[in-house]
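Q: Convert this sequence to structure tokens.
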Amino acid sequence: MAKKQLKITQIKSPIGKKKDQGATLRALGLRKIRQSVIQDDTPVIRGMVFKVKHLVEVEEV
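A:
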């Protein structure tokens, strides 16, 4: 059975936000607006996405 994956796309800049939110985007692998990454759907990744939910869009792949 295949693991679920999430496509995470950055839609806003972390400039002017808390430093840890920018660090969370970096940890997810996001560096530029409209850049997308594919991550496994784990509780750790879900928690990171929740922290920056106002800066990203998420869809299941």
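The chain has two helices and three strands.
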